[in-house]
Amino acid sequence: MRLNNIEHVFFDLDHTLWDFDKNSALAFQEIFEDENLNLNLDDFLEVYLPINFKYWELYRNNAISKEALRYGRLKDSFDVLNFNTVDSTINLIADKYIEYLPKNNHLLEGSMELLLKLKDKYRLHIITNGFEEIQQKKMEASGIHEFFQTITTSEEAGVKKPHPQIFEMALKKSNALVEKSVMIGDNIEADIIGAYNYGLKVIHIDSYGQSSQGQHPKIEKLKEVLNYL
């Protein structure tokens, strides 16, 4: 089922176009080597990933600050692994992670090919809850920055997806009409339900086998976006 009368395509960034899991693992690998941490990376990532997901959910719901997220996800992961370290080391790792993360530039399969096919037909935009200081760097390092006419971050909007205000700001910046816009993202609550409730059409990239609510278009691979656009 193709989506008609679409002029503006809004993308989430992390886990949608930018391969957050791979780039994050590479950043931690470099940090562990720099700091000579006697900790197996695979063991760390196994506990870190669900903890990080939990902390981002809290951050998205304004239950914790950015600083609490950056510290807490590491502290909790080390605690689960019984890896003893001091707060100064945790804070150092948190700072290095923000520095190293955008240096890696892996995209999810099909990202570049999709953007190349869409760029001449639609106006493309980003709406992201990621930290403002690194999102632009990620896009520049991975070679996709040039595809997007606007980038709207949660820190700029003062609220995070799924709050309607961030979608309102994104559409205002892009001079887009809601009925001629579609949101593409991986997170059911933030990207799909948030955008749908604001009035946008949506496409859910279900890379992790999540259960999607409603009858929203759902895909597993980015190239399937072309079935709708």
TrEMBL record:
InterPro entries assigned: HAD-like_sf, HAD-SF_hydro_IA, HAD-SF_hydro_IA_YjjG/PynA, HAD_2, HAD_sf, PGP-like_dom2, Pyrimidine_5'-ntase_YjjG
GO function term, MF aspect, one: 5'-nucleotidase activity
Pfam families noted in UniProt: HAD_2
Organism superkingdom: Bacteria
Record Gene3D superfamilies: HAD superfamily/HAD-like (3.40.50.1000), Putative phosphatase, domain 2 (1.10.150.240)
PANTHER family recorded: PTHR47478, PYRIMIDINE 5'-NUCLEOTIDASE YJJG
Protein name, as recorded: Noncanonical pyrimidine nucleotidase, YjjG family
Organism: Christiangramia sabulilitoris
Taxonomic placement: Bacteria, Pseudomonadati, Bacteroidota, Flavobacteriia, Flavobacteriales
